[in-house]
């Protein structure tokens, strides 16, 4: 598998009130790098759309955080398309500090969707061949999520134009805003995440009103984004900063 590497200086506008890099920014820059690698290999998002009418979509994240990047810190990010089967592609991202310590690791699962039908498409070998990924037959089972209580904290959000990406649905990083916002300032200003597991189940489109629901049990939070059914689920483990 080929590794794509880039240095990145964390800007002020991508940090929160604690000076840490925001979770949505972490996932946005990760996906930017995967796109840059694809472009460098001649299989860009534009090529994929023009050739197959397909688009890449993230369906699951598994994140381990040792420390969040800080404002003005120069970090190095590596990404590689690790393996794939007929439905799923597995890509990792590793964020490093200047001294070489691993700050966080993102294990991600992608699918291809047909842009017209919005249905999952089979992964063609020639689409992933340039990444030199391992082809596997096994489908890696994702995390099993805990059902929420009957009385979770809730907050509703209306999907705006700037929440939508080029695939025509809510950008995956926006879900983190919705999920964590319900936890409130007092909790978020005194805690940082150490483990995140998130699953996207259903697209959210422009004009939809969604509800972010959360149960906070000690240092674990259990999340759902719902509208007409569940759009996403997450479980996060936190620690005091």
From TrEMBL:
<feature type="domain" description="Acyl-ACP thioesterase-like C-terminal">
    <location>
        <begin position="151"/>
        <end position="240"/>
    </location>
</feature>
<keyword id="KW-0276">Fatty acid metabolism</keyword>
<dbReference type="InterPro" id="IPR045023">
    <property type="entry name" value="FATA/B"/>
</dbReference>
<dbReference type="GO" id="GO:0000036">
    <property type="term" value="F:acyl carrier activity"/>
</dbReference>
<dbReference type="Pfam" id="PF20791">
    <property type="entry name" value="Acyl-ACP_TE_C"/>
</dbReference>
<keyword id="KW-0809">Transit peptide</keyword>
<feature type="domain" description="Acyl-ACP thioesterase N-terminal hotdog">
    <location>
        <begin position="3"/>
        <end position="131"/>
    </location>
</feature>
<dbReference type="InterPro" id="IPR049427">
    <property type="entry name" value="Acyl-ACP_TE_C"/>
</dbReference>
<dbReference type="Pfam" id="PF01643">
    <property type="entry name" value="Acyl-ACP_TE"/>
</dbReference>
<keyword id="KW-0275">Fatty acid biosynthesis</keyword>
<dbReference type="GO" id="GO:0016297">
    <property type="term" value="F:fatty acyl-[ACP] hydrolase activity"/>
</dbReference>
<keyword id="KW-0444">Lipid biosynthesis</keyword>
<protein>
    <submittedName>
        <fullName>Acyl-[acyl-carrier-protein] thioesterase</fullName>
    </submittedName>
</protein>
<dbReference type="InterPro" id="IPR029069">
    <property type="entry name" value="HotDog_dom_sf"/>
</dbReference>
<dbReference type="InterPro" id="IPR002864">
    <property type="entry name" value="Acyl-ACP_thioesterase_NHD"/>
</dbReference>
<comment type="similarity">
    <text>Belongs to the acyl-ACP thioesterase family.</text>
</comment>
<keyword id="KW-0443">Lipid metabolism</keyword>
<keyword id="KW-0378">Hydrolase</keyword>
């Amino acid at each position: 598998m080929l590794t794509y590497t880039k240095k990145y200086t964390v800007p002020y506008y991508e940090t929160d009130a604690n000076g840490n890099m925001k979770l949505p920014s972490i996932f946005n820059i990760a996906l930017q790098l995967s796109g840059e690698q694809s472009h460098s290999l001649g299989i860009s998002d534009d090529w994929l759309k023009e050739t197959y009418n397909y688009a890449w979509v993230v369906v699951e994240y598994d994140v381990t955080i040792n420390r969040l990047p800080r404002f003005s810190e120069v970090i190095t990010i590596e990404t590689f398309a690790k393996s794939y089967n007929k439905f799923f592609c597995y890509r990792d991202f590793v964020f490093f500090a200047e001294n070489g310590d691993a700050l966080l690791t993102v294990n991600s699962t992608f699918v291809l969707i047909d842009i017209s039908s919005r249905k999952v498409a089979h992964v063609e070998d020639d689409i992933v061949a340039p990444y030199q990924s391992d082809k596997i037959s096994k489908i890696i089972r994702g995390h099993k999520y805990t059902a929420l209580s009957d009385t979770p904290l809730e907050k509703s959000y209306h999907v705006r134009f700037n929440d939508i990406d080029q695939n025509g649905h809510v950008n995956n990083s926006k879900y983190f805003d919705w999920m964590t916002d319900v936890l409130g300032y007092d909790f978020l200003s005194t805690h940082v995440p150490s483990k995140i597991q998130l699953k996207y189940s259903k697209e959210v489109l422009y004009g939809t009103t969604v509800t972010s629901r959360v149960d906070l049990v000690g240092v674990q939070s259990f999340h759902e984004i719902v509208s007409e059914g569940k759009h996403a689920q997450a479980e996060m483990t936190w620690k005091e900063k």
